[in-house]
Structure formats: structure tokens, C-alpha cells
Specification:
Number of strands: 9
Strand order of the largest sheet: 1-3-4-5-6-7-8-9
Mean pLDDT: 77
Shape: elongated
Low-confidence stretches: 62-70, 231-241
Order of helices and strands: HEEEEEEEEE
Oligomer: single chain
Helix content: under 10%
Largest sheet: 8 strands, antiparallel, barrel
Length: 241
């Protein structure tokens, strides 16, 4: 009987202590503030297509010709515009490399005048490698580029006529590209292209018109690219962060 009474007393004491503890104020602080996860790391890996528009001008050029009655018209600037397609691969969080080809229409060159020699570029294209560094959480790409160039070069001699050739050569330049939306990026780019060829003498009547033609073309272009399979999930490059 005494044991039963003692057990009931212990149980009652434990119940009272539990109730008292529940009434005491909690010593735990407020829940921690929500910290959003860091933004996903973009990668430049993937294929892209785009459009561009800008301007260009021709450097002074050298050519072999017999044009005693003629002067050489100064080169004038013009508009260039076209499309590009390419592929990039981001090897590390910093290093990006790829390949790009583009084709451009052009109004760069001097107007044909009766007693002056002039030249103009009607169209040109390039096939280039690109390599650069990725900054600002991979949103900004600074790159250099260079490779093969080709184009249509016209030489005009007023009333003596004209000749047009498609020449080949090289190109080099650089630019920057910024990813302003998940699948879209904008770029600004400078390119220097040197293309042309040597030819045998061209005769118009008794005149030897030209034995060489070459273009030294400078262009500054702005463009926009749409990127396929833009990756937000950490890949080989992003995992190194």
C-alpha cells in the first residue's frame, strides 16, 4: 500500500513539473532569416545564331596599275550587316573557346567617278576561332578572334570599265559579349580583314588596268545572339566554383 501511494506521488510530481516547464518562456531565439541560394552560374557552352549591323572603312591600298590620266579616289566608309552562327565551349570557369562563321553585305568603298580609280567591297565573310575569359558570374565574355576571310572586291575605272574578283585572306579582332537574358546575349566587335589576290594584267583597250587587288577592311559591329541549350545547372565549368 505504501509503495502504491509513493508511486502515485512521484507520478503526480512529474506531471506538475512538466506542466510548469511548458508554461515557462522559451529560451530559443527567433527562426533564422531566409537566405536565398546564390544565382545559378551560367555557361557559354552551346550553339548560337545571331544578327549584326555596323560600319566599315577601307585602309589605303597598294596596287600595280598604269593610270596616268587618273587619280585614286579616297576610300569612303559604308554600312555592313549580316548574320553569324557559332559554337562555344567553356573549359573552365574562366576560359571559353569556340568557332564562328559569318556572312556580311557591305556598302563600303568609293563611288565610281569618271576620272578616278576607286574600289569597293560588295560582300565578305569569315571563318574564325574565338577564345576569351568569362567574368561577372559568366555573364560577360571578353574575347579575341581570328581566322580566314574572303570577299568580293570591285575596282572601278570610270568610263574604262571595272573588274570584280573574289579574294581570300585573313582576319583578326576582338570584342565583348554580355548575357542580358538566359538565352540572349549582345556583343560589340571590331574586325580587321585583309583579303585579295594577284592577277595577270587586265587590258581595257590600250591600257593596262590592274595586276593586283587587295582590300584592307576595318569593321565595327554590334550584334545579338540567341543561344541554344543555355545551361543553368552546374556543369563541368561551374562545378569548379
Amino acid at each position: 500500500m505504501k509503495k502504491r501511494v509513493f508511486g502515485l506521488a512521484v507520478a503526480a510530481s512529474l506531471a506538475v513539473m512538466s506542466a510548469s516547464a511548458a508554461d515557462l518562456p522559451s529560451r530559443n531565439g527567433p527562426p533564422p532569416a531566409y537566405i536565398p541560394p546564390p544565382p545559378p552560374i551560367l555557361t557559354w557552352t552551346g550553339m548560337y545564331i545571331g544578327l549584326n549591323l555596323g560600319g566599315g572603312w577601307l585602309d589605303q591600298y597598294s596596287h600595280a596599275s598604269w593610270l596616268a590620266p587618273f587619280s585614286t579616289a579616297p576610300s569612303t566608309g559604308g554600312v555592313v550587316g549580316g548574320a553569324q552562327i557559332g559554337y562555344n565551349y567553356q573549359f573552365t570557369p574562366l576560359f571559353v573557346a569556340g568557332v564562328e562563321t559569318d556572312f556580311q553585305g557591305s556598302s563600303v568603298g568609293s563611288a565610281n567617278q569618271p576620272f578616278s580609280a576607286s574600289r569597293s567591297v560588295g560582300w565578305f565573310g569569315t571563318l574564325r576561332g574565338r577564345a576569351g575569359v568569362s567574368l561577372m558570374n559568366s555573364q560577360l565574355l571578353l574575347y579575341g578572334t581570328g581566322g580566314f576571310a574572303y570577299g568580293d572586291l570591285s575596282l572601278n575605272y570610270g568610263w574604262l570599265g571595272s573588274q570584280t574578283r573574289t579574294g581570300t585572306g585573313w582576319t583578326a579582332g576582338g570584342g565583348l559579349e554580355y548575357a542580358f537574358l538566359p538565352n540572349w546575349s549582345a556583343k560589340v566587335e571590331y574586325l580587321y580583314a585583309n583579303f585579295g589576290a594577284n592577277y595577270g594584267p587586265t587590258f581595257v583597250g590600250p591600257f593596262v588596268i590592274e595586276t593586283q587587288q587587295r582590300a584592307h577592311l576595318n569593321t565595327v559591329r554590334a550584334g545579338v545572339n540567341y543561344r541554344f541549350n543555355w545551361m543553368f545547372a552546374p556543369g563541368p565549368a561551374a562545378a569548379a566554383y
